[in-house]
Amino acid sequence: MKTTTSITLFDAEGQSFQVKVTRPRILDMAAKGKIPNPLMGIATKLMGGKQPEPGNITEHAQMMELYCRASMVEPTYDELPLDDDQVLTIFGWATIDVRQLSSFRGQSGDGASDPAVQGLSDKTEPAAGAE
User: Fold this and answer.
1) Number of domains in the chain
2) Which segment of 10-19, 34-43, 64-73, 108-117 scores lowest on mean pLDDT?
3) Torsion angle, CA of 73/71/65/35, rounded to 10 degrees?
């Protein structure tokens, strides 16, 4: 079961309102055929771990639309016309976990330079009593 939460958006007059959203699962949507054909290209790129090309506003807009469609529960994306600020708010909320993890993607290695693992043996031994 997907967990929903409410986030606050603002209309053009600055009045706040609530939208129920859930964290999108793009792979699940693709497996169930729930990604609209016009968005399949960007979804395929995202599933391959690629980001839209820098400067390609069309791909960025498609990616944001995909995340808004996948995130919005009540009202749905088709029920509520969104302005740019609202799209950015939902997209930012939907991708926060991905952005937090991106700092680790550039790191590689076996952790040998990590002070927390220096001096640990490479050998493994069975736990006491497990034989």
Assistant:
1) 1
2) 108-117
3) -90
Range of the domain at 26: 4-103
Cβ proximity of 47 and 27 under 8 Å: yes
Average pLDDT over residues 105-117: 50
How many whole angstroms separate alpha carbon 112 and alpha carbon 102?
A: 21
Phi and psi angles of residue 19, each rounded to the nearest 5 degrees, phi first: -130, 130
The SS3 of residue 41 is helix
User: What is the 3 state secondary structure string of 53-102?
Assistant: CCCCHHHHHHHHHHHHHHHEEECCCCCCCCCHHHHHHHHHHHCHHHHHHH
Q: What is the pTM of this model?
A: 0.64
53 within a domain of the structure (yes/no): yes
